[in-house]
């Protein structure tokens, strides 16, 4: 595996030897090289040895250097990424016995916004699985939904970890976030999907999700992430979340879908937490369900997590006439909202507020897309009539607003508007 040139310098080689082979196996040497190059550029040092000497001589000024680096990174990178880069830099310096306590206390790290997720509907889940061209991606999506695994846990699964006889999937401790092994129920629908996938796949590998070019290794997380978001974008299921940090639907949302479906079905909460690999402390120690209890909860889970052959309960149908009247009212309300957005858009344009203008344009596009769901129920002539109705309503509303303003002015002239100066003048 090739290393960046900066890591060939003696201070970096010493640190990498100390960090061990797993550091490079996890490909952390690339971000380390990046942050070290950034630090050298910021301080004007020509080598790592010179940079370490700079840090020792200017220890009381390190907080200024680090804050400059943080601010520069924050311009284009997420807060978590910035924190990770700085962690690597601090660990490197700590290894070389650079004192950092005082400097770290004065730093202002960037704060992330809360990401707002959205649970996919059953129809969207079915569409994602069926629309994928890759059998591996189809199974991965279904497995994440029906086991609540983290994506890293799923990608580290071996075929031998699936016990078809005991109806469980065993997740090895090395792959989990808490380093504790656990078992997850294998629901019948997922069992059938895994068997079918294994029968059809053309590569021989110990891994459930192998790298197709090198089956001796599992597929990389980056590869499946790119494939997944390409799938979402292809079928327009990837809107940004309101925080702007990411997408509303992503792999971790499937874990939330799993928990939500089980909670709705009334599955024991402590069992859900155990299956998901959450730490539940003393409650988990004292919770000892019998095999019969656990089997009963597994049956509930199998039904709650079923994806195919299950249809979401439809809404009671409305009389077509009532449906059309309801659609008319919705169109009129949406047109009023559209007018307000257009006014706000004009104002933002005049004040040159590009961010606000972009947000309004996004809202307008979403509103018009939603409005098209209702306008599709009408003929062209009916829509023209609705336009006339809306124009009449708007005129009446404007006239009412003008008459209301005139009435307020007249009332103020007669009795005063609560302003003491007005009363003194007319007293």
Structural key phrases:
mainly alpha, 4 domains, 427 residues
Summarize the structure in words.
With 427 residues, this protein is an all-alpha fold. It has four domains: 5-105, no CATH class; 122-304, Intergrase catalytic core (hpI Integrase, Chain A, Orthogonal Bundle), CATH 1.10.443; 315-378; 381-427. Helices cover 63% and strands 2% of the residues. The protein has 20 helices and three strands. It has helices spanning 10-19, 21-25, 29-43, 48-57, 62-74, 79-95, 101-105, 122-131, 135-147, 151-155, 188-200, 221-234, 251-264, 269-276, 281-286, 291-304, 320-350, 354-375, 380-415, 420-425, and strands spanning 162-163, 168-171, 182-185. Strands 1-2-3 form a three-stranded antiparallel β-sheet. A hairpin with a 4-residue loop joins strand 1 and strand 2 (168-171). The radius of gyration is 31 Å and the shape is globular. 17% of the residues are buried. Residues 414-427 have low confidence and may be disordered.
């Amino acid at each position: 595996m090739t290393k960046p040139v900066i890591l060939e310098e003696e201070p970096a080689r010493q640190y990498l030897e100390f960090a061990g082979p797993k550091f490079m196996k996890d490909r952390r040497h690339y971000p380390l090289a990046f942050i070290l190059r950034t630090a050298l550029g910021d301080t004007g040092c020509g080598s790592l040895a010179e940079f370490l000497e700079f840090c020792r001589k200017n220890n009381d000024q390190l907080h200024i250097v680090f804050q400059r680096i943080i601010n520069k990174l924050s311009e284009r990178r997420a807060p978590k990424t910035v924190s990770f880069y700085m962690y690597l830099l601090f660990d490197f310096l700590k290894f070389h016995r650079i004192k950092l306590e005082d400097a770290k206390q004065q730093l202002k790290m960037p704060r992330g916004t809360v990401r707002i997720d959205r649970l996919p509907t059953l129809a969207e889940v079915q569409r994602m699985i069926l629309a994928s061209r890759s059998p591996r991606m189809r199974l991965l999506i279904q497995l994440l939904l029906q086991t609540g695994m983290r994506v890293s846990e799923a990608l580290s699964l071996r075929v031998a970890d699936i016990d078809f006889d005991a109806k469980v999937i065993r997740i090895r401790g090395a792959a989990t976030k808490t380093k504790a092994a656990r078992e997850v129920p294998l629901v019948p629908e997922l069992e059938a999907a895994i068997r079918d996938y294994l029968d059809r796949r053309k590569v021989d590998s110990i891994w459930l999700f192998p790298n197709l070019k090198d089956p001796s290794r599992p597929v990389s997380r980056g590869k499946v992430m790119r494939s997944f978001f390409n799938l979402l974008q292809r079928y327009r299921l990837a809107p940004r979340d309101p925080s702007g940090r990411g997408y509303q639907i992503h792999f971790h949302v499937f874990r939330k879908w799993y928990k939500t479906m089980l909670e709705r079905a009334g599955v024991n909460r402590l069992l859900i937490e155990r299956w998901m690999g959450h730490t539940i402390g003393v409650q988990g120690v004292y919770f000892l369900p019998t095999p019969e209890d656990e089997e009963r909860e597994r049956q509930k889970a199998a039904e709650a997590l079923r994806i195919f052959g299950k249809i979401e309960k439809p809404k009671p149908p409305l009389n077509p006439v009532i449906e059309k009247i309801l659609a008319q009212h919705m169109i009129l309300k949406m047109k009023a909202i559209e007018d307000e957005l257009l006014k706000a858009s004009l104002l933002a344009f005049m004040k040159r507020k590009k961010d606000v203008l972009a947000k309004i344009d996004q809202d307008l596009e979403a509103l018009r897309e939603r409005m098209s769901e209702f306008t599709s129920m009408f003929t062209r002539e009916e829509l023209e009539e609705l336009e006339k109705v809306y124009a009449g309503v708007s005129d009446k509303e404007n006239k009412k607003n003008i008459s209301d303003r005139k009435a307020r002015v007249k009332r103020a002239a007669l009795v005063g508007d609560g302003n003491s100066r007005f009363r003194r003048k007319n007293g």
